[in-house]
Amino acid sequence: xxxxxxxxxxxxxxxxxxxxxxxxxxxxxxxxxxxxxxxxxxxxxxxxxxxxxxxxxxxxxxxxxxxxxxxxxxxxxxxxxxxxxxxxxxxxxxxxxxxxxxxxxxxxxxxxxxxxxxxxxxxxxxxxxxxxxxxxxxxxxxxxxxxxxxxxxxxxxxxxxxxxxxxxxxxxxxxxxxxxxxxxxxxxxxxxxxxxxxxxxxxxxxxxxxxxxxxxxxxxxxxxxxxxxxxxxxxxxxxxxxxxxxxxxxxxxxxxxxxxxxxxxxxxxxxxxxxxxxxxxxxxxxxxxxxxxxxx
Length: 296
Ligand SMILES: CCCCCCCCCC/C=C\CC(=O)SCCNC(=O)CCNC(=O)[C@H](O)C(C)(C)COP(=O)(O)OP(=O)(O)OC[C@H]1O[C@@H](n2cnc3c(N)ncnc32)[C@H](O)[C@@H]1OP(=O)(O)O
Hints:
single chain, alpha/beta, 2-enoyl-CoA Hydratase, Chain A, domain 1, three-stranded parallel sheet, globular, disordered N terminus, binds ligand LQQ7U7AH
C-alpha cells in the first residue's frame, strides 16, 4: 500500500481526520472542544474559537520522518477543509523538543528512490504550510533546529519559550550539508538577507534572546505561557477578515512559492544526487553516530 494510503488508514476511528465527527474532549479544552488523534499528531480543535492546535508527538525527538511528514500533511489537509477552523497553532505535545528537524535516518544509507520520495514529501509539507489559507502560529515549546525551524518559519508568527536550551535556527552547515534555496528564501522573508546569510553560513542556533533580537521569533514568553500566548495572538490574526488576510499572505509569499513550483523536479534531483554522495553519507553517518553515542 502507498505510504499516504497507509497513513490515512492509520488515523484512528471516530476522528474527524477520517471524515467522521470529532469526539468532545474528555478533559481540557473549552466548551465544545474536540480532539482527534493520529499516531504522530494530536489535534485539539475549538470550533467556537475557530482554532485547532496541532501537536507533534513523534518520540523521541519529533523528527520529520516520511511517516510524520505524511501524517502531518493529511491532518493539515483535513483541517483546511473544515469550515469551523480558520487558524492553526503548531506545537509539540510534550515540551522540550519542538522538532529535531528532518529525520536523518531517512537521508542515510537508503536508495535514490527513497531519497526522492522523502524530499518530495518535505516539499509538499512546505508548500501546504507556506501557502495555507489558515492563519498559522508556532508555539515553540522546545528546541527547534533545521527542519523544525523551517516548519516554524512557514507560520505567520512564532512564540518561543524562554529557556536557553531551546535554540532555533537552520544549522545545516554545522552538519556538513546546506539549506536549499527555498529554506533560505523562507528565512530571508522573515529576517532579511544579511541576517540570513550570516545565520546560514555559520549554521547558527539562536538562543531565545538572540532569536527575538534578529526577528526569527516574534515573542519570547515564560515556558508555561507559550500556547496561551500563541492562542491569544491568533485571535488578533482572526479578527482580520479572512479574504483580506489571505490575499495579502498570498501576495507576500507567491514569488517564493513559485520558485519552488518552477524548479520542483530539479530540486528533487539535486537533493538526491547531493545526499547520495559518499562524502555526504559519511558526514551524516558520523553526525548520527555522535548523537547516538551520547546515550550508550
Ligand atoms: C544541490 C542542492 C540540493 C539540496 C541539498 C540539500 C541537502 C540537505 C537539505 C536539508 C537537510 C536537512 C535539514 C535537517 O533538518 S537535518 C536534521 C538537523 N537536526 C539536528 O541537527 C538536530 C539533531 N538532534 C539533536 O541535536 C538532539 O537530538 C536534540 C534535538 C537537541 C535532542 O537532544 P536529546 O539529548 O533530548 O536527545 P538525543 O539523545 O540527542 O536524541 C534521542 C534519539 O533521537 C535521535 N535523533 C536526534 N535527532 C534526530 C534526527 N534529526 N533524525 C533522526 N534521529 C534523531 C538520536 O540519534 C537519538 O537516538 P538513539 O535513541 O540514541 O538511537
